[in-house]
Specification:
By secondary structure, this protein is of the alpha+beta class. The protein is built from two helices and eight strands. The protein has a six-stranded antiparallel β-sheet. Strands 1-2 form a two-stranded antiparallel ribbon.
Length: 110
């Protein structure tokens, strides 16, 4: 048995990361190991069996996958998702600009 840590000092894995992996495992959706990623578009699942979870979205030939990572272990898994389930977790500058412009228009029409 191995314990995650630095040297002889154990380091706990984030509980939310473990819970996310467990939730995906029990969802019945198709999963596969995935290379650990630190950059990419972060999305939040708004619908479906994994609603409320966030991860990195990738597109492969068979469709879209949400990559969930355990940072300390530098391991990831990818779960197949429906494109309609997801929304950007952090709006891009263009989305922020569009929303700001729309809010100004709304305020002007009130």
């Amino acid at each position: 048995m191995q314990i995650v840590g630095r040297g002889k000092t154990p380091i706990p894995i984030e509980e939310q990361e473990i819970a996310a992996i467990q939730r995906v495992s029990s969802s019945g959706l198709s999963t596969m190991p995935w290379p650990y990623l630190q950059v990419g578009q972060v999305a939040r699942i708004e619908e479906g069996p994994l609603q409320g979870m966030s991860g990195i979205v990738v597109r492969i030939k068979s469709g879209f996958k949400l990559v969930l990572s355990v940072q300390l272990l530098q391991r990831s898994i990818a779960v197949e998702i429906d494109r309609a389930w997801i929304r950007a977790a952090h709006p891009t500058r263009a989305e922020e600009h569009h929303r700001s412009a729309a809010e100004l228009v709304d305020a002007a029409t009130c």
